[in-house]
Structures are given as C-alpha cells and as structure tokens.
Amino acid sequence: MLLSATETHQHLAKYRAQLAHMGWRQSLHWQMSRAQAQTLLLTYLAGLPAGTRLLWIGEAAPVTALVHLQIQILPLGKAVQVLGREYQEIFVDLEASGWALDALAAISGTLVAGGFLHWLYADFSDPYQQKLASWPYQDHQMRTGFLQYLAERWQFPEACIRCSPTGSYQVTLPVFTCLEQTPQAPSYREQNTCIDRLIQSIHTKAGTWVLTADRGRGKTTALALASARICQHEHTQNWRILLVAARASLIDQILASCASALDVAYVGGQHELTYQGRQLVFMAADRLQKLPADTWHLLIVDEAAALPLSVLQPWLKRIQRHWLATTVEGYEGSGRGFSVRLLPWLQRYQQTKGGVCELLSLQAPIRWQLGDPLEQQIKADFYLTQAKPARFAFATEKVHIQQLTLAERTPAKMAAMFRLLRDAHYQTTGADLRQWWDAPDIQIWVASDQQGRLLGVSVGIFEGGFATDLAQAIHLGQRRPRGHLLAQSLAYHAGMVEAATLTYLRVQRIAVRAQVRRQSVGQALIQAMHTKAMHAGCDFLGTSFAIDKEVLAFWQQVALQPVRLGIQADHASGTYSLMALQPLTPRGQVLYQALRNRYLHTLPQQLAYMMPHLDSALVAPLLYAPEVQTYHWQSYQARELYALQQGRSGWLLSYASLATWWQQVLQQGHIQGWDPHQVAAFSALFVQQHPTEQVQNQYQRLGKKALALWIKEGLTQWRQAHPCAWANMLKQVQD
Fold first, then answer.
1. For residue 248, what pLDDT is reported?
2. SS3 10
3. What is the CATH number of domain 189-362?
4. Residue 723, SS3?
C-alpha cells in the first residue's frame, strides 16, 4: 500500500509508540535518495514532540524543520563525542557520512527505547572508500566485498521506507505479537548490586574490582554513582581519586553524572571535581607516568581494554585500590582480549599480595529491554557477536597455512577472522575489517587444523617502492601519501631517504587462538609471509607494534629486529611504537645495517632523556643485538671495572664505565640466569639514568652498601659466566 508523507508519518508515530511500550528500538531504512526523502523528512521531523533529543550524522540536515528539537549535528568522524549520551532519534545520512562501522555501531548505543535509528541511503556506494587503500590505488580499484555483503543483509530489512515513482511511500514494518503483554520496567537491581560491591573497596586495603558490560547496560552510570557514594562516605575524608580513560569524553560523562548525584555544579571539560575535601581528577594515559602515586587512594579506569597492560600494570601496582570497567563487545575495546591478558595477571598479582580481585558484570540493559531488535541487528551485521570459546581440542601437529585470494574472502571466513583479530588486538576496528575485505594491497593468511578449524590469522600489506623524486619529498616532509607506514617513517623520522624507495611486506596484524599459542602457529604464519615477500622481491619483511615485552620477544624469535623506537607515546594507549625489520635482499641488508647502527647508538640516550618512565624490564630486549659478538673497551674502562670487581673502588667513581659495560652485556644477551629484578634495576640505573634513591626504593636495596654490593655481585656473576670476555678485558688492564 502506498502512503502520502503525512500518512507515512502517522504510521511511523503509531509504530514508535509500540516500540516505547516494548522498551525496544528499531532501525528504519530509508531506501531512497535525499531528494526523494526530502518531503517525508520535513513532515516526520516537524511531527516529533517538542524537545526531542535528536542526533543527525552527516551533512545538510534540514535545520528549518528542527527548531523545536534538541538537535546535534556531527560528521561521522566525530561520533565518539556522543558516547555516554542519550538520544530519542538518530538519523545517519550514509551518502554523506560513509560506512565507518565502528562509529555507526558506537552511536547505536546512545539511542534510548522507543526510538528509531534511521539509515538514509539510495545505494551502497561509499564516498570515502578510497581512503581504505594505500597510495596509489584509486576508488575504481577497490573491491566492494563488504558493501555487497551488507547489501544482501539489508536487501529486505524488517523496517524500511521506499519511494514510488509517483512520490508516494511504501512502508514495511514488523508486527509485534506481544503488545498485550506488559513489558518489565528496567531493573536497576543488578546495577545497584555492583555499586554496593564497589563501595566495599573503602574497607579493603588492597584490591581490584572489574566491571564488564555490553553497551546500554549502565556501566558508566554505575561508575558515576559509585564515585558519588564514595565522596559521601565518612571514611573517605581527603581522598584523591584518579580517573583514567582512552578518551577524556568518557570521564567527562562520569564526572557530570557524579556531580548531578552529589547536587553540585560541574563544567564540562574541566576534568576535575571537588566535593567536601574529596577530589576526582582525570589524567590521560600518556601522562600517567609523570604523576606521583603515593597521594592517590583509588584508581578508576573506564574502557580498560583499550589500554595495554604495560600502561596499566605500573599503576595497578602503585595504587592499592582499583575499579576497572570495560565494554564486553564492540570496538571500544575487546572484552575477550581484556580477559585473556589483564584478568589472569590481576588475579595472580592480588593473590600474591593478599588482595581482592572481584569480577562484576552487568547483563541486563538499562536503556532498552532484552530482545531489542536494533541491538541484535548491529551485532549480527557488523560482526560484533563475541566468538564462543571452543569446546574441543585443536590439532596442531599438521597446521595448514593458506593465503586467501580476494574471491576467498567470504562473509563466513571474514567473520571468523575478524572476531579472532578483534579479541587479540584492542585497537581492531570496523575500518580494519573493511580494509582487509576490499583493499587490493592487503594480503591475508589463515592457519587451520586438519578439520579446517581456524587457528590463527595474519594480515600483511605491501609498502614502499616510491620513485626517487617522491621519496625525496617524503624525506623532506613535503609529501605524505596514504599508507606506507614503514617506508615513510624510516625515510622521514630516521632520516634515510632510500628507505622510501625500497619495498616491504609489513605484518599489520597477527593473532593465534589462545588454546594453541606457543605451538609454532604464529611462526608458521610468519614463515608463509616471509616466503611471499621473497617471491614478490621485497627488500624487507617488517612490522610496527605497541612495545610489549612478550610481543617483542616473538618478533625477535622470528628474526625481526628493532630499527626505530617512536619518541611520542600514543595518546590512547600510552605506549611507544616499535618498528622491526628482517632484510631479504642485498640492498635491504645495507639499509638494515645502517638503521640498526643508528638505533643501537641512539637508543641509550633516547631511553634516558625522552622516556625515563618506560618499564625498565623492556630495556634489555630493546638493546639486544645478536649481530654484536665482542666487547669493546677503552683501557681506562677496563681498569675501573677490574678495580671495582676487586673491591678497590666505589661504583659511583666508575659509573660511566659501568654504563658502557652494562649496555654491551644487554646487546650480547649475556643475562641468562640473572634475576629479572636485578636486570631491570641495572637497566634503570645505567641506561635510563634513574636516580640512585629511586632504584634503591623500587628494588628494595636500601642503603649505599646494599646497592654497591649488588652491583659488585652482578659484575662477578658476569665474570664467572663469560671468562673469555673477562680475560680479554684484563689484557687491556695489563697493557
């Protein structure tokens, strides 16, 4: 049946009332051009109740029809600004905004019950698709595999509006069979229980409370209300509470809701709230290491899965009480990856310290009711359904490695691959999924067992090979073509113009199922990529990753050595990026050696001057240089070390010689059998140049004599383990 614009609006208004009765939300597909939709849009918007909170994503919103509404207009790229807010209607002009899946999924969580999420599109073209591929690929060279998949999923949507040639509208809406039932009101019992458990941290000297929830479950509100109750408690006088998140906007929502519960004013963007002597302060992750820890009583982290363990771990050790909250599913952070990495460490740590580690969860939605059609659609269409843990054993005796062609990137394979990568990498987003599916320069390998079950996946991308004139422009900072991370960074930041002319296969992502890790599956994937790079004539196999001790050990195990450590910490993760290469050709070997020489000579100064707060346990693997085979001494250094080992000199008088000795020990990897705490302490003292008192306190070597004895013991241990190196040093003493 064809309807006029007014009749269509009346039909939708009646259906919206049914949605509100059920406590549900619905996606509504406007399958027509903006010109065709204009009349109906104006009629629909004009008929919305005054004060309706409406979000418009895209451009050219019909503002004249919105004067009675609370309207916010944003491009899709800024959609993260609305996380934590609530809207009654959301319009997404897909022709103008494009199909950024992570942003589209995120804004769906801000829609309250009884509302429509309106998708406006005439076809499945994407004006921003070209950005998914590296230079020099153009739009016509991109595949449209994901958009074709979505077109099939959305061919016959539950709720849609189509425009006829006569200008009338055909409306399709699902029929509710349970309207006579009285839906349950949102239950806050679960949320209140979690808040009560969080408040118990007041009476515990040390502990971690972990709160997990999917979107719309009231996680942020629970943190805010619990923070307000903490501020009102009689035992929290003069408490200082540190709030941390990947984005300041997340904490702004907590502080605003907390202030509302306390009935005090809060100005957005201040990132600080004071209440009767209590203080709540937001701090970005990359500034954490500059703060003294002894003045904080509680650490609250929202979306903890978006922050690596290397950032959180030092603060979880230094502050006694922590609340960690994270989204179970979605692109804000992977709940599965969070549980695989951080939770086991937290449980072990609190067990050794005698502290509490309590897991809390919010299952029931607050903004809508169970069975919500929109939530189900977003999870299914955007691959946000969490993979179920395997209940069978995987066979790794015969691992099959296959490179997927473009035609083999089917929805089923892409879904399985994406879920595995999303669980393993907290920063994996919907944009990555689209790039892996459609970009012509992306290479994908999958590892499977004999039954064809997915064990692991790796994603690579070809980079470099720029012409000399363009390479020179990149080197001078005058050009920055899309993509080509390794080639451009090494040419510009490392100052070697030839790096842009050489070619790379960069490992962009690699993930292995938790059940089969450390069984050579990852190494098999890298070997397949190595073979591909050799056949393609690449000069390097390379990668770039957020620095982490275990990850660095893996790359060094497969013969990729660091060539550049970034100097600026990522604002979201607080970690530094590390680039690693394996040369594959003679000209690649020449550049690799130049990059390694630069890296090894500048790294000690970089660690001391630019990143003294870096975890000292990372210094040893960063400085490891298997190509260095011998020790090199100045005669005075040999004499000073000999006198120190013999007990005839103090270590402070020989500090410079000790620093040279220790850096060479780390380069040659001569620390087998050493106490890891001693290795980290010596690295802090002789490489990062930490103050003596700081090292003494951190590693419990209080007093000058205790530290001096520890240093002498280390020198003696090295002498006994490497007598040839000691003998060669003595020759210079005798000379």
1. 79
2. helix
3. 3.40.50.300
4. helix
